[in-house]
Amino acid sequence: MRLVHGRLAAVSVRASAVAGAWVGVSIGFVAGALGGAVLAWAAGTILAWQRDLAFTLGVARTLLPLGDQVGALRWLSTAWYLVIPATAVAVAILAALVGGLIGGLLAAIYNRSPRHASVVVELPDEMGIVGRMPPPVPAAIIFDLDGTLVDTVGARIAAWKATFDELGIPATRDQLRPMIGMDGVRLALDVADAAGRPVDRATAEDIDRRAGEAFDEHNRDPRPLPGAREALTHLNRSGLTWAIATSSRPEQVRASIASLGLDVEPRIIDGGSVEHAKPAPDLLLLAARELGVEPTAAWYVGDSTWDMRAAVAAEMRPIAVLAGAAVNRAALEDAGAETILDTLDELEIPA
After folding, report:
1. How many CB atoms lie within 10 A of CB 7?
2. pTM of model > 0.85
3. Exposed e or buried b for every residue in 238-265, given b needs 16+ CB within 10 A?
4. Which of 46, 92, 206, 258 lies at 20 to 30 Å from 71 by C-alpha?
Protein backbone atom coordinates (compact mmCIF):
# COMPACT_ATOMS: atom_id res chain seq x y z
CA MET A 1 0.00 0.00 0.00
CA ARG A 2 1.19 3.54 -0.61
CA LEU A 3 0.19 6.95 0.66
CA VAL A 4 -1.31 9.10 -2.07
CA HIS A 5 0.56 12.40 -1.73
CA GLY A 6 -0.63 14.25 -4.80
CA ARG A 7 -0.74 14.17 -8.49
CA LEU A 8 2.64 13.08 -9.78
CA ALA A 9 1.98 15.04 -12.93
CA ALA A 10 5.57 15.88 -13.70
CA VAL A 11 9.02 15.54 -12.26
CA SER A 12 10.74 18.87 -12.76
CA VAL A 13 13.73 17.94 -14.89
CA ARG A 14 14.32 21.57 -15.70
CA ALA A 15 14.51 22.54 -12.03
CA SER A 16 16.94 19.71 -11.33
CA ALA A 17 19.07 20.66 -14.30
CA VAL A 18 19.30 24.27 -13.14
CA ALA A 19 20.17 23.20 -9.59
CA GLY A 20 22.77 20.75 -10.88
CA ALA A 21 24.24 23.42 -13.13
CA TRP A 22 24.65 25.82 -10.22
CA VAL A 23 26.35 23.15 -8.15
CA GLY A 24 28.60 22.31 -11.09
CA VAL A 25 29.47 25.99 -11.64
CA SER A 26 30.32 26.46 -7.95
CA ILE A 27 32.48 23.35 -7.75
CA GLY A 28 34.08 24.07 -11.12
CA PHE A 29 34.90 27.67 -10.20
CA VAL A 30 36.54 26.78 -6.89
CA ALA A 31 38.44 23.83 -8.34
CA GLY A 32 39.41 25.87 -11.42
CA ALA A 33 40.69 28.77 -9.34
CA LEU A 34 42.86 26.50 -7.22
CA GLY A 35 44.00 24.51 -10.24
CA GLY A 36 44.71 27.67 -12.26
CA ALA A 37 46.78 29.18 -9.47
CA VAL A 38 48.80 26.00 -9.11
CA LEU A 39 49.22 25.83 -12.88
CA ALA A 40 50.39 29.43 -13.11
CA TRP A 41 52.82 28.99 -10.19
CA ALA A 42 54.24 25.83 -11.75
CA ALA A 43 54.60 27.50 -15.14
CA GLY A 44 56.27 30.50 -13.55
CA THR A 45 58.72 28.30 -11.72
CA ILE A 46 59.58 26.44 -14.91
CA LEU A 47 60.00 29.70 -16.82
CA ALA A 48 62.23 31.07 -14.07
CA TRP A 49 64.43 28.00 -14.39
CA GLN A 50 64.38 28.45 -18.14
CA ARG A 51 65.40 32.10 -17.86
CA ASP A 52 68.26 31.29 -15.53
CA LEU A 53 69.41 28.53 -17.80
CA ALA A 54 69.17 30.79 -20.85
CA PHE A 55 71.22 33.51 -19.18
CA THR A 56 73.78 30.96 -18.01
CA LEU A 57 74.20 29.39 -21.44
CA GLY A 58 73.79 32.64 -23.37
CA VAL A 59 71.27 31.07 -25.68
CA ALA A 60 68.11 32.95 -24.59
CA ARG A 61 67.38 34.13 -28.12
CA THR A 62 67.06 30.53 -29.34
CA LEU A 63 64.36 29.54 -26.83
CA LEU A 64 61.51 31.46 -28.47
CA PRO A 65 61.13 32.00 -32.22
CA LEU A 66 60.05 35.66 -32.16
CA GLY A 67 60.42 38.84 -30.13
CA ASP A 68 62.57 39.80 -27.23
CA GLN A 69 62.75 36.45 -25.46
CA VAL A 70 64.94 37.72 -22.68
CA GLY A 71 62.64 40.68 -22.06
CA ALA A 72 59.57 38.45 -22.03
CA LEU A 73 61.14 36.07 -19.57
CA ARG A 74 62.25 38.97 -17.37
CA TRP A 75 58.70 40.43 -17.36
CA LEU A 76 57.09 37.10 -16.52
CA SER A 77 59.54 36.49 -13.71
CA THR A 78 58.73 39.86 -12.11
CA ALA A 79 54.92 39.97 -12.70
CA TRP A 80 53.63 36.77 -11.13
CA TYR A 81 51.41 38.75 -8.77
CA LEU A 82 49.34 39.51 -11.89
CA VAL A 83 49.89 36.34 -13.90
CA ILE A 84 48.86 33.88 -11.19
CA PRO A 85 45.46 35.53 -10.38
CA ALA A 86 44.69 36.10 -14.09
CA THR A 87 45.47 32.51 -14.94
CA ALA A 88 43.47 31.28 -11.94
CA VAL A 89 40.38 33.31 -12.97
CA ALA A 90 40.58 32.19 -16.61
CA VAL A 91 40.86 28.54 -15.66
CA ALA A 92 38.12 28.95 -13.02
CA ILE A 93 35.66 30.39 -15.57
CA LEU A 94 36.37 27.60 -18.03
CA ALA A 95 36.04 24.96 -15.31
CA ALA A 96 32.79 26.54 -14.07
CA LEU A 97 31.24 26.39 -17.56
CA VAL A 98 32.25 22.77 -18.03
CA GLY A 99 31.18 21.85 -14.48
CA GLY A 100 27.81 23.55 -14.91
CA LEU A 101 27.13 21.67 -18.13
CA ILE A 102 28.12 18.32 -16.64
CA GLY A 103 26.25 19.00 -13.38
CA GLY A 104 23.07 19.99 -15.17
CA LEU A 105 23.11 16.92 -17.42
CA LEU A 106 23.82 14.53 -14.54
CA ALA A 107 21.07 16.08 -12.39
CA ALA A 108 18.53 15.87 -15.21
CA ILE A 109 19.44 12.24 -15.94
CA TYR A 110 19.25 11.29 -12.26
CA ASN A 111 15.93 13.12 -11.89
CA ARG A 112 14.38 10.91 -14.56
CA SER A 113 15.69 7.70 -13.02
CA PRO A 114 13.45 5.42 -10.87
CA ARG A 115 15.77 5.97 -7.89
CA HIS A 116 14.92 9.65 -7.73
CA ALA A 117 12.51 10.14 -4.82
CA SER A 118 11.58 13.81 -4.92
CA VAL A 119 8.67 14.98 -7.04
CA VAL A 120 7.08 18.27 -7.96
CA VAL A 121 3.32 18.38 -7.53
CA GLU A 122 1.65 20.24 -10.38
CA LEU A 123 -2.07 20.78 -10.87
CA PRO A 124 -3.76 21.51 -14.19
CA ASP A 125 -4.68 25.10 -15.00
CA GLU A 126 -8.29 24.23 -15.67
CA MET A 127 -8.78 23.28 -12.03
CA GLY A 128 -8.17 26.86 -10.99
CA ILE A 129 -5.85 25.88 -8.16
CA VAL A 130 -2.47 25.94 -9.83
CA GLY A 131 0.40 26.20 -7.38
CA ARG A 132 -1.66 25.09 -4.39
CA MET A 133 -0.71 21.63 -3.17
CA PRO A 134 -3.54 19.53 -1.73
CA PRO A 135 -3.26 18.84 2.00
CA PRO A 136 -1.16 15.73 2.78
CA VAL A 137 -3.91 14.67 5.20
CA PRO A 138 -7.45 15.28 3.95
CA ALA A 139 -10.19 16.68 6.15
CA ALA A 140 -12.44 13.94 4.75
CA ILE A 141 -12.47 11.19 2.14
CA ILE A 142 -15.64 10.73 0.09
CA PHE A 143 -16.21 7.54 -1.89
CA ASP A 144 -18.40 6.64 -4.80
CA LEU A 145 -20.17 3.30 -4.30
CA ASP A 146 -20.86 1.36 -7.51
CA GLY A 147 -17.64 0.26 -9.17
CA THR A 148 -15.51 1.89 -6.48
CA LEU A 149 -16.34 0.02 -3.28
CA VAL A 150 -18.63 -2.70 -4.64
CA ASP A 151 -18.44 -4.63 -7.93
CA THR A 152 -21.84 -3.65 -9.32
CA VAL A 153 -21.03 -2.13 -12.71
CA GLY A 154 -21.93 -5.37 -14.48
CA ALA A 155 -25.30 -5.44 -12.73
CA ARG A 156 -25.89 -1.79 -13.69
CA ILE A 157 -25.16 -2.50 -17.35
CA ALA A 158 -27.41 -5.57 -17.31
CA ALA A 159 -30.23 -3.59 -15.67
CA TRP A 160 -30.09 -0.79 -18.21
CA LYS A 161 -29.84 -3.26 -21.10
CA ALA A 162 -32.89 -5.18 -19.86
CA THR A 163 -34.89 -1.97 -19.44
CA PHE A 164 -34.11 -0.68 -22.93
CA ASP A 165 -34.80 -4.12 -24.42
CA GLU A 166 -38.18 -4.14 -22.68
CA LEU A 167 -39.00 -0.73 -24.17
CA GLY A 168 -37.74 -1.67 -27.62
CA ILE A 169 -34.96 0.93 -27.56
CA PRO A 170 -31.74 -0.42 -29.15
CA ALA A 171 -28.76 -0.29 -26.80
CA THR A 172 -25.57 -2.33 -26.51
CA ARG A 173 -23.46 -3.19 -23.48
CA ASP A 174 -20.44 -1.45 -25.06
CA GLN A 175 -22.56 1.66 -25.53
CA LEU A 176 -23.79 1.58 -21.93
CA ARG A 177 -20.47 0.74 -20.25
CA PRO A 178 -18.84 4.22 -20.31
CA MET A 179 -22.17 5.82 -19.34
CA ILE A 180 -22.39 4.02 -16.01
CA GLY A 181 -22.04 6.54 -13.21
CA MET A 182 -23.77 9.41 -14.96
CA ASP A 183 -27.20 10.80 -14.14
CA GLY A 184 -29.78 8.09 -14.95
CA VAL A 185 -32.21 10.53 -16.53
CA ARG A 186 -29.49 11.91 -18.77
CA LEU A 187 -28.41 8.36 -19.67
CA ALA A 188 -31.98 7.51 -20.71
CA LEU A 189 -32.26 10.67 -22.80
CA ASP A 190 -28.90 10.10 -24.52
CA VAL A 191 -29.52 6.44 -25.35
CA ALA A 192 -33.02 7.19 -26.68
CA ASP A 193 -31.67 10.01 -28.85
CA ALA A 194 -28.85 7.81 -30.19
CA ALA A 195 -31.42 5.15 -31.11
CA GLY A 196 -33.56 7.67 -32.98
CA ARG A 197 -36.28 7.31 -30.36
CA PRO A 198 -36.14 10.62 -28.44
CA VAL A 199 -38.21 10.82 -25.25
CA ASP A 200 -39.29 13.67 -23.00
CA ARG A 201 -37.92 14.16 -19.51
CA ALA A 202 -40.89 12.57 -17.78
CA THR A 203 -40.41 9.41 -19.83
CA ALA A 204 -36.68 9.46 -19.13
CA GLU A 205 -37.40 9.65 -15.41
CA ASP A 206 -39.67 6.63 -15.74
CA ILE A 207 -36.95 4.74 -17.61
CA ASP A 208 -34.48 5.63 -14.86
CA ARG A 209 -36.88 4.35 -12.20
CA ARG A 210 -37.47 1.08 -14.09
CA ALA A 211 -33.74 0.59 -14.55
CA GLY A 212 -33.34 1.04 -10.79
CA GLU A 213 -35.89 -1.68 -10.13
CA ALA A 214 -34.15 -3.94 -12.64
CA PHE A 215 -30.85 -3.28 -10.87
CA ASP A 216 -32.31 -4.65 -7.63
CA GLU A 217 -33.10 -7.85 -9.51
CA HIS A 218 -29.60 -8.16 -10.96
CA ASN A 219 -27.71 -7.04 -7.85
CA ARG A 220 -28.46 -10.16 -5.80
CA ASP A 221 -24.91 -10.97 -4.73
CA PRO A 222 -22.74 -7.85 -4.80
CA ARG A 223 -19.09 -8.29 -3.85
CA PRO A 224 -16.75 -5.73 -2.30
CA LEU A 225 -13.88 -4.72 -4.58
CA PRO A 226 -10.29 -5.47 -3.48
CA GLY A 227 -9.19 -3.33 -0.57
CA ALA A 228 -12.58 -1.63 -0.06
CA ARG A 229 -13.58 -3.25 3.22
CA GLU A 230 -10.08 -2.90 4.63
CA ALA A 231 -9.85 0.78 3.67
CA LEU A 232 -13.18 1.67 5.28
CA THR A 233 -12.41 -0.36 8.41
CA HIS A 234 -9.08 1.43 8.73
CA LEU A 235 -10.83 4.79 8.31
CA ASN A 236 -13.21 3.96 11.14
CA ARG A 237 -10.29 3.06 13.39
CA SER A 238 -8.25 6.12 12.45
CA GLY A 239 -11.10 8.53 13.15
CA LEU A 240 -10.74 10.25 9.78
CA THR A 241 -14.07 11.55 8.48
CA TRP A 242 -15.49 9.72 5.48
CA ALA A 243 -18.74 9.13 3.66
CA ILE A 244 -20.23 7.54 0.57
CA ALA A 245 -21.68 9.85 -2.07
CA THR A 246 -23.63 7.95 -4.70
CA SER A 247 -26.04 8.91 -7.45
CA SER A 248 -28.15 5.88 -6.59
CA ARG A 249 -31.31 6.21 -4.54
CA PRO A 250 -31.27 4.86 -0.96
CA GLU A 251 -33.41 1.82 -1.79
CA GLN A 252 -30.88 0.79 -4.46
CA VAL A 253 -27.81 0.69 -2.24
CA ARG A 254 -28.88 -1.52 0.67
CA ALA A 255 -27.51 -4.77 -0.75
CA SER A 256 -24.25 -3.12 -1.79
CA ILE A 257 -23.70 -1.52 1.62
CA ALA A 258 -24.51 -4.79 3.38
CA SER A 259 -21.91 -6.60 1.27
CA LEU A 260 -19.16 -4.42 2.75
CA GLY A 261 -19.69 -6.05 6.15
CA LEU A 262 -18.84 -2.93 8.14
CA ASP A 263 -19.21 -2.81 11.92
CA VAL A 264 -20.45 0.79 11.76
CA GLU A 265 -23.21 1.97 9.43
CA PRO A 266 -21.62 4.31 6.87
CA ARG A 267 -22.79 7.83 6.22
CA ILE A 268 -24.46 7.97 2.81
CA ILE A 269 -25.29 11.03 0.72
CA ASP A 270 -27.51 9.88 -2.14
CA GLY A 271 -28.46 11.32 -5.49
CA GLY A 272 -32.03 11.99 -4.43
CA SER A 273 -30.84 14.90 -2.31
CA VAL A 274 -29.60 17.10 -5.15
CA GLU A 275 -31.07 18.61 -8.29
CA HIS A 276 -28.17 17.79 -10.61
CA ALA A 277 -26.35 14.46 -10.56
CA LYS A 278 -22.76 13.81 -11.58
CA PRO A 279 -20.84 15.11 -13.47
CA ALA A 280 -22.29 18.22 -11.79
CA PRO A 281 -20.57 18.85 -8.45
CA ASP A 282 -23.83 19.18 -6.47
CA LEU A 283 -23.65 15.76 -4.78
CA LEU A 284 -20.03 16.18 -3.73
CA LEU A 285 -20.56 19.71 -2.46
CA LEU A 286 -23.54 18.49 -0.41
CA ALA A 287 -21.37 15.73 1.04
CA ALA A 288 -18.72 18.27 2.04
CA ARG A 289 -21.35 20.46 3.73
CA GLU A 290 -22.82 17.55 5.64
CA LEU A 291 -19.36 16.47 6.77
CA GLY A 292 -18.49 20.04 7.75
CA VAL A 293 -15.35 20.30 5.57
CA GLU A 294 -14.19 22.55 2.78
CA PRO A 295 -14.40 20.82 -0.62
CA THR A 296 -10.77 21.74 -1.38
CA ALA A 297 -9.69 19.83 1.75
CA ALA A 298 -11.46 16.62 0.73
CA TRP A 299 -10.55 13.66 -1.48
CA TYR A 300 -13.11 12.04 -3.76
CA VAL A 301 -12.49 8.44 -4.79
CA GLY A 302 -14.43 7.07 -7.77
CA ASP A 303 -14.24 4.78 -10.77
CA SER A 304 -15.92 6.66 -13.62
CA THR A 305 -15.19 9.67 -15.78
CA TRP A 306 -18.32 11.25 -14.29
CA ASP A 307 -16.83 10.88 -10.81
CA MET A 308 -13.61 12.56 -11.85
CA ARG A 309 -15.38 15.45 -13.61
CA ALA A 310 -17.61 16.00 -10.59
CA ALA A 311 -14.57 16.03 -8.27
CA VAL A 312 -12.75 18.53 -10.50
CA ALA A 313 -15.84 20.75 -10.61
CA ALA A 314 -16.13 20.57 -6.81
CA GLU A 315 -12.37 21.32 -6.45
CA MET A 316 -11.87 18.11 -4.54
CA ARG A 317 -8.88 15.92 -5.16
CA PRO A 318 -9.95 13.32 -7.78
CA ILE A 319 -8.63 9.82 -7.17
CA ALA A 320 -9.65 7.02 -9.53
CA VAL A 321 -9.72 3.25 -8.94
CA LEU A 322 -9.54 0.82 -11.86
CA ALA A 323 -10.60 -2.44 -10.18
CA GLY A 324 -14.32 -2.06 -10.84
CA ALA A 325 -14.25 0.65 -13.49
CA ALA A 326 -16.02 0.36 -16.83
CA VAL A 327 -13.46 2.66 -18.50
CA ASN A 328 -9.69 2.57 -18.89
CA ARG A 329 -6.86 4.60 -17.39
CA ALA A 330 -6.63 7.02 -20.32
CA ALA A 331 -10.30 7.95 -20.04
CA LEU A 332 -9.95 8.63 -16.32
CA GLU A 333 -6.85 10.76 -16.90
CA ASP A 334 -8.68 12.75 -19.56
CA ALA A 335 -11.52 13.32 -17.11
CA GLY A 336 -9.12 14.90 -14.60
CA ALA A 337 -7.99 12.08 -12.31
CA GLU A 338 -4.90 13.19 -10.38
CA THR A 339 -4.03 9.72 -9.13
CA ILE A 340 -5.13 6.37 -10.53
CA LEU A 341 -4.98 3.25 -8.35
CA ASP A 342 -5.34 -0.32 -9.56
CA THR A 343 -7.17 -1.27 -6.36
CA LEU A 344 -8.03 0.37 -3.04
CA ASP A 345 -5.21 -1.69 -1.50
CA GLU A 346 -2.96 1.04 -2.90
CA LEU A 347 -4.71 3.79 -0.95
CA GLU A 348 -2.92 4.13 2.37
CA ILE A 349 -5.07 5.96 4.88
CA PRO A 350 -3.18 8.88 6.50
CA ALA A 351 -2.70 8.50 10.23
Report:
1. 22
2. no
3. eebbbbbbbbbbeebbebbbebbebeee
4. 92
